[in-house]
Amino acid sequence: MTKFNFSKRVPADGTDAVGVILKAAADPKIISFAGGLPAPELFPVKAMKEAVDQVFAERGQEVMQYGAAKGVTALRELVLQRVKEKENVTGQLDNVLMTTGSEQALDLVGKAFVNPGDTVLVEQPTYLCALDVFKSYGANFVGVEMDEAGMKMDALEEALKAHPEAKLVYTVPNFQNPTGRTMALKRREKLAELAAKYDVYVLEDNPYGEIRFKGQHVPAVKSFDKTGHVFYMGTFSKTLAPGFRLGWVVADEAVVNKLTVLKQSADLHTDNLAQYAVVEFLKHNDLDAHVKQISDLYGQRKALMTEGLEKYFPQGVKYTDPEGGMFLWVEVPGVEDTVELFKQCLEHNVAFVPGDPFYAGDPQPGAFRLNYSNAQADQIKAGMKHLGEALQDERELTAKPSYD
């Protein structure tokens, strides 16, 4: 059998712990809170089909031809208009690059800025796929402590002083994946200030920001950026459909130009049909009304999940209380092995994502992520009962005296 000599970027066999977990959770008997999927029943299928039909009728040959690497001009203009309206982020057309999902934006920024051995500062915990991307470019990670108001700026400044070579700060300030926390306004202002002071770039990832079901909107970190140190990422994956793979970066023109060159090496350009279809859809449909439907449903599902937490979970369990997005974070004191806890929960026909892969450093035992966006009400009610029973069983097993 041939032994392939893969590059150092390729993960070693057996390192895809999340893939194994999600595969196990895909069993039809399992109620899974493990994925990060939007609710498919809210995808605007009929309206999008009409949009696609119209695009083919008007631009059939154009959408089937090669396109511009930066993306369709009309869509970039709409993105600029939307980020100004929603996030107080201003810019010109040359500040916007359309990407094949926000995952490609992460990859392009990693490729453009992270050399082997460079330090990347991340929230502790943080989005696991971002860790995977930056790790593939040889990053060294430094985790920055969070609390309920997001990344702590005093901890970040201490990390910047201790690591003056730091290249990048990565943050998900709104309804963070995995914790659901939102960064406070003053901390956003301070983050932009620290970026300029220590000449470090900030990658602001905002996939969930519009999915708010309570509380007050907080403007983007990028809206406080006066020096171009903040790169803002967004996506249509959570507000329209993830299958279209449409994301974007808003950044200084020099940054966008470099990312565009790297994108040309990766895929030449993002899918023309998807871009034009969204332009057409937005001409005839109210995206804000659609996003409100999503937010209302997720708010109901999150409320059901927290009711289940209060009703069925053992005393002492802590959990976050997100005001939007798709996730909440649970911490179970006394649990040493969260992956083992996951296996115990599978026996109760319920699944979550263990917290370990979300940490750049040592993980916090007993922490895990729950997703509420892609579960029906009856699944949430039953699943939280099963999960509570599994946690209770684990507590009893841990507390059982040993007679060895």
TrEMBL record:
**Where's the Aminotransferase class I/classII large domain?**
44-386
Signal sequence, renumbered to the chain: none
Q: Which cofactor does it need?
A: pyridoxal 5'-phosphate
Q: Which GO terms describe its biological process?
A: alpha-amino acid metabolic process
The similarity annotation says: Belongs to the class-I pyridoxal-phosphate-dependent aminotransferase family.
Subunit composition and interactions: Homodimer.
What is the name attached to this protein's record?
Answer: Aminotransferase
Organism of origin? Limosilactobacillus reuteri (Lactobacillus reuteri)
Source taxonomy: Bacteria, Bacillati, Bacillota, Bacilli, Lactobacillales
